[in-house]
Amino acid sequence: MDTKLKKFVTTTSLGISIGGIEIDVPNFRTDLKDIEGVVKLVVELLNLAVGFSVIVAIIMVIYGGYTFITANGDAENIAKGGKILTAAIVGMVIVFLARLIIVFILEEFLL
Fold first, then answer.
1. How far, in Å, CA of 25 to CA of 44, rounded?
2. Whole-angstrom Cα distance, residue 84 to residue 2?
3. Rounded to a whole number, what is the largest CA-CA distance in the chain?
4. Would you tell me how many other CB atoms lie within 10 Å of the CB of residue 17?
5. Judging by DSSP bridges, how do beta strands 15-18 and 9-12 pair with one another?
6. Which domain holds residue 37?
7. pLDDT in 10s for each residue of the chain, 111 residues
């Protein structure tokens, strides 16, 4: 693998780092006998899901932008690119709001 690519995408025993953004893999060896262990596992799974959705959204934004730029004045492709960009942005807003609500509920009512 190219050294520049190795610096950009690195894997560790705890997760993956893409461009300096680290996505941790949940530790399933947590103690699930008490509520703190369950909450910790839920938060770790939530962080993994958010990290994965960020990667998918970035890919969608790149694809939507590419479709939009290469439309060459075709109204159908311009609309398609715009819809892809809109869906990616709205999807990420929903994901971040959902994470914010879940973490708020966990912190305020369970811990």
1. 8
2. 31
3. 60
4. 16
5. antiparallel
6. 26-110
7. 455 545 444 444 456 666 556 666 666 666 777 877 787 888 888 888 888 898 899 999 999 999 999 999 899 999 999 999 999 999 999 998 988 898 888 888 876
Instruction: Report DSSP letters for 6-68, one per residue.
Output: HHHEEEETTEEEETTEEEEPP-TTS--SSHHHHHHHHHHHHHHHHHHHHHHHHHHHHHHHHHH
pTM: 0.68
12 domain-assigned: no
Under 8 Å between Cβ of 21 and 54: yes
Number of domains forming the structure of the chain: 1
Is 92 contained in some domain? Answer: yes
